Amino acid sequence: MSKSIQAYRAAFRATGLAFKGDPEVLLAARSKIKQGYEESKNLPSEEINDKVDKLNEVSQFLIKNIVQGRLDNDGKYFLNFHDRTELGDNETIKQNNRANLGSLAGSKVKKCTDK
C-alpha cells in the first residue's frame, strides 16, 4: 500500500475518533480530506511526499489534541477525552519565568505608547 493511501486512511480514522458523535463535522472533515487527496494526485512526487507528511501531522493532531465537548442540562460542559488524548501537566508553564507570561501572570502589560 502506498504512503499516500496509508496517510489518507489514517486521516479518516483520526477524524472518526476526533469527531465521533458529530456526523456533520465528521462528514465535512472527511470531504475536505478527500478533496485534497483528489487534487494532489497529479502533483510531482516531492510535493506529494510533503502533502503526505502534512496529512500525517494533521492526523496526529486530531487524535491527540481535539476533544469534543457536550453541554449538559445543568449548564456545564462534559469533555469526551479518550485514551489517546494528550494531557499536559503544565510543567513548561511552571518552569518559565512568570514575568515573561504577560498579563495572564498578573504583571502589567506594556502598551505601544508606554516608554
Please explain how this structure is put together.
- This protein is mainly α.
- The protein has one domain (3-86).
- It has 4 helices and 2 strands; from the N terminus they run αααββα.
- α1 packs antiparallel against α2 (23-39) and α1 (3-18) runs parallel beside α3 (45-65).
- The protein is extended and about 50 Å long.
- The relative contact order is 0.12.
- The mean pLDDT is 83.
- Interacts with RIP1.
- It is found in: Mitochondrion matrix.
- Belongs to the complex I LYR family. MZM1 subfamily.
- One of its GO terms (cellular component) is mitochondrial matrix.
Summary keywords:
mainly alpha; 115 residues; 4 helices; single chain; two-stranded antiparallel sheet; MZM1/LYRM7
| Major β-sheet profile | 2 strands, antiparallel
Write down the Rg. Answer: 20 Å
Q: Report the count of strand segments.
A: 2
Uncertain residue segments: none
Topology pattern, helix = H, strand = E: HHHEEH
What secondary-structure arrangement, pairings included, does this model have?
Elements: H1 3-18, H2 23-39, H3 45-65, E1 68-71, E2 77-80, H4 91-95
Antiparallel strand pairs: 1-2
